[in-house]
């Protein structure tokens, strides 16, 4: 390096190469436009001396008067919203962040316009999986119609419907970029077995199909309805949802599997929250890892003659204990109106549908 060379790589008294390139291009452009202006202004008397020169003059391409105007008319995107206030948190009545820095999503803690723009730039497609086995197919019409109204509005969605009755899947009007995909699966005699097999099916199709078709998976129960906006604010690598009964309960009240012989066992002095299996999800790869491990644990229990107290939900809670979710959904995203309307619940986004369990299960 020359003794006079500075930190930018140039030698004192000279321009660095990148500056020479810019100056060279600028000089060439200025010379070219200057020449065209000189010729078109008629200052050269030589172009009018002969007919051929006159033709050459008329053949010279005139500079566009619209180039600068077009550039000046380009509208840059703007994001206008209320500035976040560091010393004024949006909610002071609820926990908004876990000890492992996973946000808990409540109404008033996010800006949907900012989030929608970010996810549109990423051009994501969301997969919504639902199991409609046996008579549970009767819930599909309300489920799909309310999803079209409230779920991921403005984004591409694939509805993956697992069913043993594909001919009974209702036809529902869908917006552009949204599709129903029917996946035929077998049923099982007991509803508990159907519930547990969900992990197996989600694991298999995540690896074989979903990974090639969607960016995120949202896995939900079918006997539900959307009641308010459920959008990209829920999406993260791995998310779970607080159980509407236990969100404010102490650890000792959680209905974890407490038998050490089960793969879903959680000791009484462990646990963060109790999560509901009615809605969970994340990236396809993270959902694959979760469902694969839960399914394998369920099969080990089955081989040992054990069934966890709340089937796949017990295994889900065990998984979330040791593989912390990166985002947690508040009870707004899984509510039952039989529980009333606590003051902290500003929205009821995803609601349990009233039903006769005895008339639906095992039928």
Terminal CA distance = 83 Å
How does the helix and strand content classify structurally? alpha/beta
Query: Which shape, going by the Cα principal axes?
Result: globular
- Strands in their spatial order, largest beta sheet: 1-9-7-8-5-2-3-4
Q: Total number of β-strand segments?
A: 10
Mean pLDDT: 84
Which strand-content bin applies to the residues?
5-15%
Task: Give the % helix.
Answer: 25-40%
What is the succession of H and E elements?
A: HHHEHEHEEHEEEEHHEEH
What is the compact description of this entry?
With 363 residues, this protein is of the alpha/beta class. The chain has helices at residues 17-40, 51-59, 67-72, 112-122, 140-150, 191-208, 284-303, 311-322, 357-360, and strands at 104-105, 125-132, 156-163, 178-184, 216-220, 224-226, 238-241, 279-283, 327-329, 350-352.
Q: Notable features of this structure?
A:
363 residues, alpha/beta, eight-stranded mixed sheet, two-stranded antiparallel sheet
Model description:
- The protein has about 375 residues and is of the alpha/beta class.
- It is about 30% helix and about 15% strand.
- The protein contains 9 helices and 10 strands.
- It has helices at about 15-40, 50-60, 65-70, 110-120, 140-150, 190-210, 285-305, 310-320, 355-360, and strands at about 105, 125-130, 155-165, 180-185, 215-220, 225, 240, 280-285, 325-330, 350.
- The strands form 2 sheets. It has an 8-stranded mixed beta sheet with strand order 1-9-7-8-5-2-3-4, with helices on one face. Strands 6-10 form a two-stranded antiparallel ribbon.
- Helix 5 (about 140-150) links the parallel strand 2 and strand 3 (about 155-165).
- Helix 6 (about 190-210) crosses helix 7 (about 285-305) and helix 7 packs across helix 8.
- The model is unreliable at about 1-65 (pLDDT under 50).
């Amino acid at each position: 390096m020359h003794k006079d060379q500075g930190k930018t790589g140039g030698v004192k008294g000279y321009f660095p190469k990148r500056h020479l390139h810019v100056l060279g291009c600028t000089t060439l452009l200025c010379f070219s436009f200057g020449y065209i202006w000189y010729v078109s202004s008629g200052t050269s008397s030589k172009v009018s001396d002969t007919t051929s020169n006159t033709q050459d003059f008329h053949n010279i391409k005139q500079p566009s008067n619209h180039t600068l105007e077009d550039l000046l008319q380009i509208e840059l995107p703007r994001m206008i919203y209320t500035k976040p206030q560091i010393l004024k948190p949006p909610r002071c009545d609820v926990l908004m962040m876990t000890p492992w820095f996973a946000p808990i999503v409540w109404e008033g803690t996010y800006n949907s316009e900012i989030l929608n723009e970010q996810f549109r730039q990423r051009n994501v497609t969301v997969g919504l999986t639902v199991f409609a086995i046996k008579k549970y197919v009767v819930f599909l019409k309300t489920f799909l119609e309310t999803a079209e109204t409230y779920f991921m509005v403005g984004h591409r969605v694939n509805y993956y419907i697992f069913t043993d009755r594909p001919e009974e899947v209702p036809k529902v009007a869908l917006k552009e970029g949204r599709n129903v995909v029917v996946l035929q699966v077998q049923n099982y005699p007991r509803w508990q077995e159907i519930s547990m097999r969900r992990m197996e099916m989600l694991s298999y199709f995540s690896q074989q199909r979903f990974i090639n078709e969607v960016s995120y998976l949202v896995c939900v129960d079918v006997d539900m309805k959307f009641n308010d906006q459920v959008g990209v604010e829920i999406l993260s690598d791995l998310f779970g949802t607080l159980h509407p009964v236990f969100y404010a309960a102490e650890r000792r009240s959680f209905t974890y599997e407490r038998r050490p012989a089960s793969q879903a066992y959680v000791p009484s002095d462990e646990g963060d929250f109790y999560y509901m299996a009615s809605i969970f999800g994340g990236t396809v790869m993270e959902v694959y890892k979760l469902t694969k491990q839960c399914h394998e644990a369920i099969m080990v229990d089955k081989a040992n003659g054990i069934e966890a107290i709340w089937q796949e939900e017990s295994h889900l809670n065990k998984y979330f204990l040791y593989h912390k979710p990166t985002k947690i959904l508040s009870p707004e995203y899984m509510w039952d109106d039989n529980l009333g309307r606590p003051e902290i619940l500003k929205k009821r986004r995803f609601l349990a549908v009233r039903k006769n369990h005895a008339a639906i299960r095992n039928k």
